[in-house]
Structure formats: structure tokens, C-alpha cells
């Protein structure tokens, strides 16, 4: 069972730190090229699907705790709401690489909310995580009340080198690789703009025993 983020999966903590450092981007062109090559080597299409046994709710909480630990932001952490389905408390077989899109989307949400705090006076950040279950799949929805995404970028979010961040903070591969992961595990990643903020949903098929 999962009690702490670093306790599940083989090399999970190392994977999270490596992926996070790569996705945040670097300023020097040579370093960016090196990062791209590393991301290609990490490409989920080149790897087998491995599964860990844990409840979906615990899995989501572990990744969320990892992002909170990295950002070290008590204010943001205090504004997280969770609505976890009781049906997802039981142990299931979870594709380990699901940690990549979930970690990336949560990390992006924290960045967006931190940026909104800087630009808007009296802004109160809010992040809502919700899990749901159907007979065929379970899902995770991540909703924030940040600044949103420019309409001109909405149809290109999952293309490589498309980023909503400044050049020094990212090179636009996070969502591209996240979609690759979801395709690999037979799942789906869905983006919906909101009046205030955005919502990303990850649909994950159940692994039949």
C-alpha cells in the first residue's frame, strides 16, 4: 500500500525528479538539446507497460504530495480540494507511467496558480482534484482557477514545443509526452477551458486481472 510518494513503484522518486527537472526547461540552447534527447530516451512508446498494485485514490494522493513537497507552498497546498470516489479506495493495477501525465498536469497547475497570485491582487488560488469510476475506466480531473490558456493555443496543447510558459521555464514537451503516455496505456487526456481556469481529465482503463 502507498503511504508516502516515494514508496511506490520502482525508482518512482528518481523518475519524478528527473522528469520534473527536464520539463521545466533550461536557458542555454545546448542544454535544451540535451534535455530533448533525454526526453526521447524517456519516451513511453519505447517502454513496456508495468503495473503497480495500489488504490487509485492513494496513487493520486501520492503524486499530489510529491508536487506539494517540490513547490513548498503552504498557501497553495491549503487551497487544494479533493473529491475522491469511495469506489476507488480498493487496490487496483495501475500503470506506473501514469505518474508522468498526472505529475506534469499538477505541476503545471501549481505554476499557473503561482503566476496568477503574482498578477492579481487578492487572488485566492484553488485546485480541485476529483476521481470517478465507471465500469470500464476510472478518471482523475484536475481543475484550477488560474489565468487559463490563450484560445489560439487550445487546439495545439498536445503538440511538441507548444508552451504557455516563458521560454526560460519550459520548452513545451510536457503535455506532448503526457498524451503519449495516455495513448500507450490505452487511456485518454481531455482538456476543457473554463470561464476561470482550466480542467484536465485523465481517463484510465481498468487492468483486468
From TrEMBL:
Membrane-crossing segments per the record: none
EC number: 2.7.13.3
MF-aspect GO terms: ATP binding; phosphorelay response regulator activity; protein histidine kinase activity; protein kinase activator activity
Keyword ATP-binding: yes
Record keywords, A-Z: ATP-binding, Kinase, Nucleotide-binding, Transferase, Two-component regulatory system
Record domain Histidine kinase: where: 95-208
One of the protein's GO biological processes: osmosensory signaling via phosphorelay pathway
UniProt keyword annotation of 4Fe-4S present: no
Any Pfam family hit: HATPase_c
Catalytic activity: ATP + protein L-histidine = ADP + protein N-phospho-L-histidine
Name of the protein described by the UniProt record: histidine kinase
Organism the protein comes from: Crocosphaera watsonii WH 0003
Taxonomic placement: Bacteria, Bacillati, Cyanobacteriota, Cyanophyceae, Oscillatoriophycideae
Amino acid at each position: 500500500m502507498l503511504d508516502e510518494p516515494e514508496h511506490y513503484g520502482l525508482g518512482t522518486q528518481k523518475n519524478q525528479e528527473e522528469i520534473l527537472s527536464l520539463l521545466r526547461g533550461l536557458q542555454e540552447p545546448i542544454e535544451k538539446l540535451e534535455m530533448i534527447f533525454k526526453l526521447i530516451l524517456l519516451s513511453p512508446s519505447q517502454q513496456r507497460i508495468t503495473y503497480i498494485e495500489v488504490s487509485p485514490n492513494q496513487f493520486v494522493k501520492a503524486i499530489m504530495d510529491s508536487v506539494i513537497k517540490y513547490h513548498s507552498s503552504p498557501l497553495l497546498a491549503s487551497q487544494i480540494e479533493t473529491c475522491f470516489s469511495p469506489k476507488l479506495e480498493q487496490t487496483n493495477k495501475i500503470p506506473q507511467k501514469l505518474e508522468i501525465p498526472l505529475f506534469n498536469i499538477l505541476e503545471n497547475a501549481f505554476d499557473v496558480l503561482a503566476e496568477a497570485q503574482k498578477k492579481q491582487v487578492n487572488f485566492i488560488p484553488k485546485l480541485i482534484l476529483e476521481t470517478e469510476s465507471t465500469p470500464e475506466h476510472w478518471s482523475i480531473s484536475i481543475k484550477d482557477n488560474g489565468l487559463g490558456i490563450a484560445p489560439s493555443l487550445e487546439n495545439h496543447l498536445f503538440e511538441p514545443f507548444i508552451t504557455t510558459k516563458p521560454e526560460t521555464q519550459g520548452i513545451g514537451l510536457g503535455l506532448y509526452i503526457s498524451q503519449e503516455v495516455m495513448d500507450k496505456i490505452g487511456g485518454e487526456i481531455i482538456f476543457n477551458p473554463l470561464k476561470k481556469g482550466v480542467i484536465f481529465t485523465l481517463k484510465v482503463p481498468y487492468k483486468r486481472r
